[in-house]
Amino acid sequence: MKVKSPLEIYRYLPQTNCGECGYDTCMSFAAQIIERTVKPTDCPPLVKEAEKNPKVKKKLEELIEITSPEVKEVIIGKGDKAVKIGGEDVLHRHELTFFNPTALFYDVWDTLDDKEIDERCSKVVEYRKFYVGEFLTLDGIAVRCTSNDPKRFREVVKRVAGYGKPMILVSLNPECMRAALEEVAEERPLIYAATEDNWREFLELALEFKVPVVVRSKDLNKLKSLAVTFKEAGVEDIVLDPVTEPVGEGLKGTFERVIQLRRTAILGEDKDVAYPIMITPIAAWALEADEVSKAYWETVIASIFIVKYGDVMILHCLEPYAIMPIVTLRYNIYTDPRTPVQVEPGLREINNPSPDDPVFITTNFALTYYTVESDLTSGNIKGWLLVLDTEGLGVEVSVAGGQFTAAKVKDLIKETKIEEKVNHRYLIIPGLAARLQGAIEDETGWKVLVGPMDSGRIKGWLEQHWPPKEK
Ligand code: SF4
């Protein structure tokens, strides 16, 4: 995005504050464009006026141009299940944020029997890993044509479409690709891949079926030339595959090609390659090695390119030990650094507590909250856990920064009605908030006990301090 402030966008808007966009003022709407939660075309009066007046139309086009991400955003799939790739604006997350997490597609192939295909598809659909309050999942299925038989490829693609996940169709044979597209083009699969040898047929397919397409070449000049050819012919949704080589000098070369593509795209040096990048960690399975080693290399390659600019990937190994590091790393790289990860404040009941059980308090910083909650739950500790809104900051920082205060603790006690649920007035605060002990007692009238620094020690601490001697 070429603009950095809402004021620059405001100049292009009608400035009537009519509220039709759902925001009270045009300035708030402009701020949301910067946040990428709305688009210029979400302002109805602007769009209506552009339809009648060529000058306004030009203005709207200019606004779309200056607010578009540096890297084109491409959508694979349709409806709620569609996945967005690309759409990035910066080279480093701390400069703003990364927007669209690397999309992970796992393969099935059409020489498997139907039962094996169903097993793999189910694994992709059902994969869920709970992490910092969210379920991490996989994005889609890449269907590889290994039969080279259009009829079989079409059948398998139809079967896989039944699982409702976005798809990548993988075949270099235009006949096979056409057969598959006749079956599932409406699902908006990504087709893989147009090369030096088949690009004419793939260009026809992309135009005829209106689907996004991968162009593939290890030579970046040829890759660019393919992208330009497709763009000039009217294909908007293009993905670049600079060819993933799994080890040694090949891997080093892959890394250099990816960095070069993304740098030139983001720095505006070459808009002809400003498209999402495809990485194929599955290439590790062509190595001569045992299965676990291949899975190891696949995970290494995926990790490198989750950190550096891989927008979409095709992978093979569905073992939890291979998937877990990939989805966890992706979560961490694509977390918005401008907003701390937080949970809802309020009251949580841990292990069906009774009115005699202890009351703890922690912050709503997700990492702190889930650590405390898991230590209490897994330690079979019954208790009441107050979660204070510290704007997503941890205990030490929020005590120092004034987000964890005695007055806020008093409000939380009132809001959660905890006084009606327990028959004592003891509150256990984290050891890192010890300096608030007196202030909380004065403000709330509760007796404050200073718990351990580390929630992993709560169990041992309770053995010595609960129930309180002076109850
Ligand atoms: S709909 Fe357009 S004109 Fe109306 S408030 Fe929103 S941005 Fe402003």
From TrEMBL:
InterPro entries: 4Fe-4S_dom, Ac-CoA_synth_d_su_TIM-brl, ACDS_complex_subunit, AcylCoA_decarb/synth_gsu, AcylCoA_decarb/synth_gsu_arc, Dihydropteroate_synth-like_sf. The gene is cdhE. Keywords: 4Fe-4S, Cobalt, Iron, Iron-sulfur, Metal-binding, Methyltransferase, Transferase. Its EC number is 2.1.1.245. One of its GO terms (molecular function) is methyltransferase activity. Binds 1 [4Fe-4S] cluster. Residues 1-62 form the 4Fe-4S domain. PROSITE patterns: 4FE4S. Its cofactor is [4Fe-4S] cluster; corrinoid. This is Acetyl-CoA decarbonylase/synthase complex subunit gamma. 5-methoxybenzimidazolylcob(I)amide binds at residues 362, 368, 392-395, 455. It is an enzyme of class 2 (transferase).
